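Q: Got a minute? One more chain.
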Amino acid sequence: MDLRALAADTAHDLRDDAALRRVYDRAPSEAAIAKVADHVHAVYRPYLEAAPFAVLATVGEHGLDTSPRGDAPGFVKLADERTLLLPDRRGNQRLDSLRNIARDPRVALLFLVPGAGEALRVNGTARISASAPLCAAFAVDGKAPASVLVVSVTSVFFQCARAIQRSQLWNPERHVAPGTLPSAGAMLQALTGERFDGRAYDAALPARQADTLY
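A: Always. Here it is, folded:
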């Protein structure tokens, strides 16, 4: 099967709502509509408090971006039912998400809880606060984040478990064995035309990550 040729065929592209509905001809179920709240409903709060991982989606002048965010469960705090607080921990200093938010405040978050089938989706707008007292409230081991995202929630709803079930994401028997995928050093070495010493980079990486975790 020539997947390249199949992907290049645009004759069957769905370009508007009417075209989509010809293929997806069933209306959303009552449950799919009823699950949407315009705030963090009390029934959704346990997911936020249990989640150690989220994906942050932003949009900027160069397009869309997604960024993983993770910390101890409950690392995203609720200021109130319409306001989430997300600390910006140390990273690679690219600032892709923050630059996007500075230009366009629209954000989306997908929260995952290990072992749970459902995910939690949050949409809203964000601003970047460097308030020292606010950052200090999120300090870990005496190290405060450089900034905190203050997210104004516009919608919250759960995503059903089908994607998790199909992927068997939490099944340890499906976990990729160490060494199966290219390491960070191997990828950098390949992408830079051997400018990076991949083995040296990988050897130093665990200690560097531990030292700069917060």
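A: The chain has two domains: 31-167, 176-211.
Q: Perfect, thanks.
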